[in-house]
Write a structure and sequence with these properties.
single chain; 2 domains; globular; Cytochrome Bc1 Complex, Chain C; mainly alpha; binds protoporphyrin IX containing FE; 70% helix
Length: 401
C-alpha cells in the first residue's frame, strides 16, 4: 500500500523536480507554494517513505516472533532482508533530493560511515558520492538510484517475495497437535474473508496517512550550505543507532563490525534457530513470553546505564594509553559487551530452564531493545557537540543556535 502511494506521489514530484543543486531547492519551494496540492503530494511521499521503513521493520518482527523465518521459508526471510535494505536505500537517496541543510548534512554524516570500511571504504564512498564529497554528482547519482534502480529492485523482489509466500504454503499457522484438532481448524477462503480485511486495513491506513499529511509538513530547512555545518550534525533517524555507537566504540567496530555482525546474524537466523515445533506460535511459548518480558526490562535499564557510564566514567583510551585505539576503544569495550551478552544467554537459559530457541529469542529481544534505545538516545538526547542532554535542552539549544 505504501509502495503504491510512493510510486504515485513520486511520479507527481518528478513533474516539478530537477536534480541539480541550483534548481532542486527552488523546485521544492515552488512545489510547496505554487503547485496545487504540491505540499500535500510532498508530505504524502515523505511520510509514506518513513512509514515504510517502520512497517517493513514491524513486519520483520512479526515474522520473527511467529517463527515465520524457519524452513521452508528461509529463502523468503533473506529476500525480506534485501527488501528492508532497499527500503532504507530508497529513503536515504530520497533524503538528499530537497537539497536543504537537513538533506546535505544528513547525507554527509550518513555516507561518512562508509569511510570506516577497511581498504575499500574511501573508494566505495567516492563511487557513491561521485567525487570526494556531497556535490552535484551525488545529487544526480542519488536521483537515478532513487527514481529508477531502487524502485525497480523493490518491485521485482517484492513480486518474488509474494510468490514465495504462496510457494512456501502461505503464512505460518500453528501446527495442529493431532488430527482431531486439525479437523476442527476452521479454514476460510481468501476471497472474501482475507481480501475484505486487507481492504479495510488499506483504507484506514490511507485515511490516517492523508490526515497526517494534511496536518504535518515534511521538514524543509534553508538551502544547503557546504560551508556551514549544523551542530549537532545528525544522520537520518534510522542510522542514529549506529551514530550513537560511534560515540562509544572505535569507528571500525561501530560502523562496520557491529552492523555486519547484526546482518550476518539475521541471515543466519533460520539455521541458528531451526526448531519447527513452535512455528506459528507467538513468542514460541508461555516461557518465551516471560523471557521476552525479562529481556525487554533488562535492555531498557542496562542500555542507558552503559551509555551514561561510558559518557562520564569509562575511559579505556585514557586508562590504556600505550595501546592503539582500535584495541582500547574497540576490542576492549566490544569484549566487555560480548561477555555481558554471553552472561545474559547463559543466565536466562539456566534461570528459565529454557530451550535454545527460547533463549535465542530472548537474546534477540535484548539486542532489539538496546538498538531501539540507542536510536532514541541518538535522536532526542544528543545536543550540540553530541553531548548527552534532556530532549527539552536539545530543543532549546538547537533553536538558540
Ligand atoms: C520505497 C520507495 C520510496 C521511498 C522510501 C522514498 C522516500 C523519499 C524521501 C524520504 C524523500 C525526501 C522527501 C522530502 O523530504 O521531501 C523522497 C523524495 C523524492 N522522491 Fe521518493 N521514495 C520512494 C520512491 C520514489 C519513487 C518510486 C519515485 C519516482 C517515481 C520517487 C521520487 C521522488 C522525488 C522526485 C523526490 C524529491 C522531491 C521531494 O523531496 O519532495 N520516490 N523520496
Ligand atoms: C518492503 C518490504 C516488505 C514487503 C512489502 C513484504 C510483504 C510481505 C507480505 C505481503 C507477506 C505475506 C503476508 C504476511 O506474512 O504478512 C510477507 C511474508 C513474509 N515476509 Fe515480507 N515483506 C517485506 C519485508 C520483509 C522483511 C524485512 C522480512 C524479514 C527480514 C520479510 C520476511 C518475510 C517472510 C519470512 C514471510 C513469510 C512469513 C510467513 O509465512 O509467516 N519480509 N511479506
Amino acid at each position: 500500500m505504501l509502495m503504491t502511494v510512493l510510486l504515485a506521489t513520486g511520479v507527481m514530484l518528478m513533474f516539478t523536480y530537477t536534480p541539480s543543486p541550483s534548481q532542486a531547492y527552488n523546485d521544492i519551494l515552488n512545489l510547496q507554494t505554487n503547485v496545487w496540492f504540491g505540499q500535500l503530494a510532498r508530505n504524502l511521499h515523505h511520510w509514506s517513505g518513513n512509514a515504510m521503513i517502520v512497517v517493513a521493520f514491524l513486519h520483520m518482527l512479526r515474522v520473527f516472533f511467529t517463527g515465520g523465518f524457519r524452513q521452508p521459508r528461509q529463502f523468503n526471510w533473506i529476500l525480506g532482508i534485501v527488501l528492508l535494505l532497499l527500503t532504507v536505500g530508497a529513503n536515504f537517496t530520497g533524503y538528499l533530493l530537497p537539497w536543504d541543510q537537513l538533506a546535505y548534512w544528513a547525507i554527509t554524516v550518513g555516507t561518512g560511515l562508509i569511510e570506516y570500511m577497511p581498504f575499500v571504504g574511501k573508494w566505495v564512498q567516492t563511487v557513491i558520492l561521485g567525487g570526494p564529497e556531497v556535490s552535484a554528482a551525488t545529487l544526480l547519482n542519488f536521483y537515478g538510484l532513487h527514481i529508477a534502480l531502487i524502485p525497480i529492485g523493490l518491485l521485482a523482489i517484492m513480486s518474488f517475495h509474494f510468490w514465495r509466500v504462496r510457494k512456501d504454503g502461505g503464512v505460518v499457522i500453528p501446527r495442529a497437535p493431532d488430527e482431531e484438532v486439525e479437523k476442527k481448524v476452521k479454514r476460510v477462503v481468501t476471497i472474501p474473508y482475507l481480501v475484505t480485511r486487507e481492504l479495510v486495513v488499506a483504507l484506514v491506513l490511507m485515511a490516517a496517512l492523508l490526515v497526517f499529511s494534511m496536518v504535518v509538513n515534511a521538514p524543509l530547512e534553508e538551502l544547503a550550505n557546504p560551508d556551514k555545518s549544523p551542530n549537532p550534525a545528525k544522520a537520518p533517524w534510522y542510522f542514529m543507532g549506529i551514530q550513537e555507537l560511534l560515540l562509544h566504540f572505535h569507528p571500525l567496530i561501530a560502523a562496520l563490525v557491529i552492523p555486519a555482525a547484526a546482518l550476518a546474524a539475521l541471515v543466519a537466523l533460520p539455521y541458528l534457530d531451526a526448531d519447527l515445533d513452535s512455528v506459528g506460535v507467538w513468542f514460541r511459548s508461555h516461557k518465551g513470553r516471560r523471557m521476552g518480558l525479562a529481556a525487554t526490562g533488562i535492555g531498557l535499564v542496562v542500555t542507558p546505564l552503559l551509555v551514561v557510564a561510558d559518557e562520564y566514567i569509562l575511559d579505556f583510551a585514557g586508562w590504556l594509553p600505550s595501546l592503539p585505539t582500535l584495541i582500547s576503544n574497540g576490542i576492549v569495550p566490544l569484549a566487555i559487551v560480548l561477555l555481558l551478552l554471553f552472561g545474559f544467554y547463559d543466565g536466562m537459559k539456566k534461570r528459565f530452564a529454557a530451550t535454545n530457541c527460547e533463549t535465542i529469542q530472548a537474546t534477540f529481544i535484548l539486542l532489539l531493545v538496546s538498538f531501539i534505545t540507542l536510536t532514541i538516545i541518538g535522536i532526542w538526547f544528543r545536543g550540540p557537540g553530541m553531548a548527552l542532554m534532556w530532549p527539552w535542552d536539545v530543543a532549546a539549544a538547537v533553536v538558540g543556535h
